[in-house]
Every structure is written in structure tokens, then in C-alpha cells.
Amino acid sequence: MGIARPEVLVIGAGPAGLAAAIEAAEHKASVMVVDENVRAGGQLIKQTHKFFGSELHHAGIRGINIATKLVERAVHLHVSIQLHTPVVAIFEGVVVMAKEEKVLETIRPARLIIATGAIENAICFPGWTLPGVMTAGAAQTFVNIHRVRVGDRVVVVGSGNVGLIIAYQLRQAGSEIVGIVEAKPQIGGWGVHASKIRRMGIPIWLSHTVKEVRGDDRVRTVVIHQIDSNFHPIPGTEKELIADTVCLAVGMRPQVHLVEMAGGSFVYEPVLGGIVPVHNEIMETTVSGVYVAGDVAGVEEASTAIVEGQLAGLAAAYSLGKVSRPAFEERRNAYLQALEELRSGPFGDERKEAKRRIWNHYDQLKQ
Amino acid sequence: MTNLSNNKFEVTIRRCGVPSDEELVRCPGVPNTKRLHQGPVAVIECVEEIPCNVCEVSCPRGAIRIGKKITNLPMLDSQSCVGCGLCIPKCPGLAIFVVDQSGKDIDKVSIPYEFLPLPKPGQIVTALDRNGQPVCDARVERVNNDPRNDRTAVVTLLVPKGLGMKVRFFWLKGEEQDVQRE
Amino acid sequence: MKSEDTDRRIYEHPILGPLKDGKKCVIIVDGKPIEAREGEPILAAMLAAGIVVARQTEKRHEPRGLFCGIGLCSDCLVTVNGVRNVRSCVTLVEDGMRVETQAPEAAQWG
Q1: Do B151 and C15 touch (CB under 8 A)?
Q2: A154 vs B50: which has the higher pLDDT
Q3: Cβ–Cβ contacts within 10 Å for residue A234, how many?
Q4: Is the sign of the CA dihedral B11, B12, B18, B21 positive or negative?
């Protein structure tokens, strides 16, 4: 049973959405979270590996367990979580959702936080439509949530953290990993994730891409070839691999449809996945009262998603008069400091700069 | 992934996925040869600056230092470290090992392991190097799967003397990846 | 390795632990009864039984199956109890459900 008119409506029950709901509820706002999935937790419920960061960021805990903790905390704070309820439209001040995909309902929240995450990219090659070619996320969903093997011999395309992690997880689930194909001349993800793969003898083919996939009712072989510094194939370098599955781990982009419907403005930031909603440091979009948090605001990590969720929840609660100014400033500064830390080092610097550009853009638009 | 010049030394892990011997020698988490021959000690093969300090928090003797900037590479105080191995299952990157090169005929290597089936003490396995290449047979001395380690088992292998800084993984006999790749 | 006839569920997993005993049911896919577990989507039961083709495309009759896994791409559409275009990757099984891997539909007007 939901709240008839929540002060804060959060769309998305992933790490960002749940963190936002928890923060707003801690400041005594009435909060409803809706999610199209039948389970809460977003991408966390597929992450069987232990997280990095510091104690503040749930480091050392497996993603699946972080999800459980967040849901428990939200429920404890009387946040109403409506699952299997996709949001189908947003008009001015009104959100339309399909409760359990059966009945349309409209809600007029005082504040809206959109935390719809990211969707996976795909690349095409001849044979990409064959059963057996799937996104990395699809493989993760079916193996880690539904507990079904998706294939026995897997080629992973993409050596970012997603590709490196899915290779490890599929190996844990009993599949063999034929290898990882990477178009760039260096590995995309963190060294430690790559080392876990390499010590098992799994090859990472740099400067390679898929030429075609062959099969009848499913993938039977995968032909890869080398590419030069302009990404052009080098003739004569083809290798045909015996495989029944190809996992595409070629990046993600923010899932921004609802932000668009809500009237938000956008910028193009390749570092953060592509088209990103313009927002300020406290996660408010150019539409007053509408906030974003997590991968929808730029593809990063679960740790940054959680802190951005906290910022958005805090900002929403503050704007509703639920937080004193000194308390707001103290918490806001702590969260911004946490994000600084998470966005540091050679892997984080680019994202830090990209976020700064987005915040500046917000200032310019709001002048 | 462009500018890596913030890191202290050129990183070949970017190209191979494996730290080079040179990177390991210069890595502040890797103890020197003298200490390795004195008894069990942690070997933290963490060569890239990522925000993470779980190992620092996990050491009961304070032998691992990262500091306020959590992207710093972990530094091992190898004299304080007694090689207890509590840090091994804690590292989210599975980058920590305990190596003991003080024995006469054998070295010991403790390795984080998250696969089934778990080996049993006494079992002979095929020991692999960082590139997954077989280097020797090894005997399993001990398998620690304490529930407090949250499903990261620690397997201690006995390997021929001198291979303690080479061996970093293993296959069970008969479970080798059948990779007729082409 | 012919995998079509084996049970492709993951019963033991080093992190997720043993697969819990769940309430089972039966769905009928192209006339063949297959075992399903309560709470799982249709495509999971199909993949567990080794069925990877969900439908054939309209023009060229090419096989399609799991692609995005989260109900966005429309590759996995099947016909359920006579209703076409059901997303098998997110629609949960129900006991006795009749699933047909979706054949191309002849174009019709009027």
C-alpha cells in the first residue's frame, strides 16, 4: 500500500534511489520509491564481488549484501517501495505509473528524484543477432539472479571493469572463458580485475575486435581480427574461436527518457557515457524540484551512485524545509568530499573534470 | 583511458593485465627478498591508484599504511607484518598473498580462492604463474574457508624452493580449462 | 558438447551458495512440458531446459533469443496463452502456462 501523495517520489530502487530515499526519510520526509523490476536493489543484486573504497562506501562487502542492507534500512524508515511498477510518463508536476503493470496511477509528489540508472551499449557485426550473443548485463542477470547457465564457452567483448568482472563471474558459475577482446591497445578496467583473469590463463587480445559470429540456431564460432591505430581491420589476422556465447561489455549510457519527459536539459559527456542531464553539485536538474542521482547522472560506480543519492535526498529534504541550514551544509560538504575521494586517481580524474563541466553548465543555464 | 602520468611509474599492467617484475620490485606493498626469507609475510600486489583502503583497516598490527588519500598505494611495514594472512580474504581485488621463503626445500604461498570445488589438504594441484602458465606441481597444505571471510577461501600451497614469488594461482588436476581456442 | 538435454541450472555456486529448494511448476513450451521455478521469468526456465530460440524474425525467419535480459530490446518475445509479444526475460512463469516460441505472423489487413 503506497502513500497517496508522497513528499518525495524516487524513480528507481537501485543504490542511488535507495540511498536518496533513506536520506530523505531520515529527515522525516514521506518517501515513495517505484521500480519496474520485481526486486529492489538495481544492479547491486547481481554483483557478487566485494566492493572497493573505504568503510564509508561499504568497501569489502559484496554488492548483493549492500543491496539487502539498503532495502532493510529504507523499509525500517517507512519508505514505501512499489516494485513491478514502471513509470510510463511524466507531465508537469505529475508522474504516471503502471502499478504492477496493470493499473495506471498518477502521483503528484512535491519533489522528484530520478535514479533510473544506465543501459548497455551494443556493437554490431555479422551474426550479432544469433542466440548466444548478449549484453554482459544479460549474462549477469541470468547467471547470478536466475541461476541459469547462459553458455559453456564465452568470448567477452570489452576489457573495461564490466567485461573483466563478467569474465570472472562466468568462470565462477562454471563457464569457460575463451578470451576477452579489446579494441584499444590497452586494458580498459582496473589492473586488479585484469590480474584475476590473467592468473587463470584467460587471454586478453588487445587491438582486436569481432569480425563476425557464425552459427545456425545459436553461436558456434567467433571470428576476431586485429585492428590498427585507426581501428581498421588488418587483413590476414583472423582467428576463429570455438564458442557458444558472446558477451558485449562495450559501455553504458544514462537512461534519460524520464528526465527528458520532465523537461531537463542535457549535455554530451563521453567520459560519463554520452548524453547526461545537466545538474548542479546537489543533484538538482534545470527543472526546479527534479533531481537526478546515480548512473542516470553519468555512468560511474555504485559507490558514487550511493553518495549522489544521499545528496539528492538531502537537497530535496532541505528544499522542503526539513533540514536546518547548518545541518544541510555540514552533510552536503561531507558528501561532496566523499565524491572527491571516489573520483580521484588516474581512473577518477576524468570523471571529476566531467562533473565539474556539468555543474558549470548548470550555472550558465540558470543565470 | 588516457592520462596515467599521475602514477609513480610506468604501468605495464595496462597492457598485460599483470604487474611486471619491475613494477613489483618498486611496489611499496611488496617486501624485499631479505624479509621474504625470514618467514611468512604479506605481498600486496596493488600497483595502481584506485580509491580503496580495506587492507589498511584489516591489519590488526597496523602493518599496512594507506593514509588519508585512499588512492595511495598500500605500503607494507614488513617488520611489523607477521604474515598472519588476515588481509588476504579482505582485499576486494584479490591482490594480496602471503609468501614464506624461509624453508630449506619448499616455499609456501597463500592464495585467495573463490571457486568450487575447493581443494583439500594434501591434494596435488598444478600451480600457475601470474599469466596463468603452469610452473610446477604443488601440494595443498591448508584451506581456510572461515565464514568471517565471506566466501573468499585462502589456500596455502607448498611449492619448490624459489617459486614463492612466481606462483599466484592453480588448477585442480583434471579441471584444467580445455581451451582449444581455435 | 551437446547441451540441449542437460539441466543448465546452477545448483552450486562459490558465492551465491546452493540453489534453494523452491516451489516448482510446469510450463509447456511448444507442446513440451518443462520444469520451472516459481519467481523466475519464462526465459530462465527455457534456458535451463536448453531452449535458446525465443522467436523467428518476420521476414528472414532468423532465430532470436536472450539479448538485453531486462525487457528493453524485444529479442526474446514469445506467445503466452495465445497472446503474442510477451517479453520472456521479465515475465514470470505461472503453472500450466502455454508458451510458444513465436513464429512470424503473416501480414494481414482488414
Answers
A1: yes
A2: A154
A3: 12
A4: negative
Task: For residue B17, give the nearest of A184, A187, A345 by CB distance.
Answer: A187
- Per DSSP, the residues of C40-109 read SBHHHHHHHTT----EE-TTT--EE--SSSSSSS-TTEEEETTEEEEETTTSBP-TT-EEEEBPPPPP--
Would you call A345 and B94 a contact, using CB atoms and an 8 Å cutoff? Answer: no
Residue B143 resides in a domain = yes
| CATH code where residue C60 lies | 3.10.20.440
Helices (runs of H) and strands (runs of E) counted in chain A: 9, 20
Task: Name the residue of chain C whose CA is nearest to B114's CA.
Answer: C14
Q: At residue A77, what is the residue type?
A: L
Q: Which residues of A are less than 8 Å from C43 in CB distance?
A: 142
H-type helices in chain A, by residue range? Answer: 15-26, 63-76, 136-140, 161-172, 191-198, 257-261, 302-319, 325-342, 345-365
- Establish if A167 touches chain B: CB-CB under 8 angstroms: no
Note down the domain range covering C79.
12-103
Looking at the DSSP bridge assignments, the partners of residue A284 are: A291
Count Cα neighbours of A349 within 13 Å in the Cβ-side half-sphere.
11
- Least CB–CB distance from C9: residue in A62, A138, A147: A147
Q: What is the pLDDT of residues B69-109, one digit of tens each?
A: 999 999 999 999 999 999 999 999 999 999 999 999 999 99
* Any domain includes C17: yes
- C63 interfacial to chain A (CB closer than 8 Å): yes
Domain that holds residue B53: 12-181
For residues A286 and A365, the answer to whether their CB atoms sit within 8 Å is yes
Structural domain contains residue B1: no
- Distance in angstroms (rounded) separating the CA atoms of residues B128 and A206: 22
> What is the per-residue pLDDT across A112-147, written as a single tens digit (0 to 9) for each?
999 999 999 999 999 999 999 999 999 999 999 999
Please give the C-alpha separations between residue A163 and each of A1, A181, A250, in angstroms, as whole numbers: 40, 9, 8
How is residue A89 written as a grid cell? 510518463
Strand partners, A291: A113, A284
Q: B153: nearest CA in chain C?
A: C14
Tell me the backbone φ, ψ of residue B110, rounded to 5 degrees. -105, 130
Residues of B whose CB is below 8 A from C15: 114, 151
